[in-house]
Amino acid sequence: MTTPVIGVLALQGDVREHLVALAAADAVGRPVRRPEELAEVDGLVVPGGESTTISKLAVLFGVMEPLRARVRAGLPVYGTCAGMIMLADKILDPRSGQETIGGIDMIVRRNAFGRQNESFEAAVAVKGVPGDPVEGVFIRAPWVESVGAAAEVLAEHDGHIVAVRQGNALATSFHPELTGDHRVHSLFVDMVHAYRTARS
Length: 200
Prior knowledge:
This protein is of the alpha/beta class. The chain is about 30% helix and about 30% strand. It has a seven-stranded mixed beta sheet with strand order 2-1-3-4-12-11-10. A hairpin with a 2-residue loop joins strand 11 (about 160-165) and strand 12.
């Protein structure tokens, strides 16, 4: 099976760290900023950063509508932190003009775990990730207030939902790309392989 090409939405945020993590998980990572680049990938990571900025830049670069269309069509997509917010069908407290890609039937609260100086790390047991719990890095992290029937909760921390999957869409409140543990990225790469197999 050929190595999947997975894009990282490179408008703002920790793009380089995701590219490194994808390479460690046996995928080819590629920055994506424009619709023609999006069209060439087998999956997409929406990184952490500032969700309002990512939203506005996605519209500015003309990539928001193509992103929505590809996610609706089944493109595997993984969002971390701000990326989780971008994949939510609804934001509890959106900034003015903030849009999302959607794809997961969940309501997300921005900055729910506190401000930058309240960032923390915690061990998180993630369903579908074998072995010990992963080290979750939470930086101005959101949490999921609620999920619809189609969404599956993969992890919780301190009573709050911090990892969700719906079909080919995966989202975590935390940043596995910052830890050197690439098992969550490997889970996503497996999702991309399954998507490609189903289409072939």
